[in-house]
């Protein structure tokens, strides 16, 4: 069984970007669904909709693993796969959004800046870019006084912020090296804990594992956030 190294993760992201279900599924032939279950679910969703051979059995396995892990966004993704496997209609509205981008904005520190998700294009934009605050021109589709105003196109939000310490602590729990695990737990609550955490992992295989872990958490939170608003990524 092969690991998810940088090259294979890049290949997986590329297959999803190209919407190549067969290529995405092939990457899982010799690799575990974990630790990339959020990506795996998206890959299998694509493979199922493209009737890719072997996708159904792997998708059923993914549903089981998502239910067992039960991170934010896992239940929503498992439901999506189950819906496709059962041939039922999904009641959530599709949005062409990049979960990674949305997750990065949602996880940002709370502040005065307001953002919008463009439900037509899937882009995340600061409100100031649309209402003339940053430019001298208001986007007609965002201007309530314009005949081109599209009120249902925009979903405003503020960054929710997320205690990154929780992700780092949960990741540390998974490390088999007791010495490293103990060292990381000692620095998590320090004022410079983020820098020390990254420094301790730098150049080790655990550094790559942490990046996958953090990305999975962020994508899952973004998926859950969308679902609570009746939306899902397409």
UniProtKB/TrEMBL annotation:
Name of the protein described by the UniProt record: Uncharacterized protein
UniProt organism field: Actinomadura craniellae
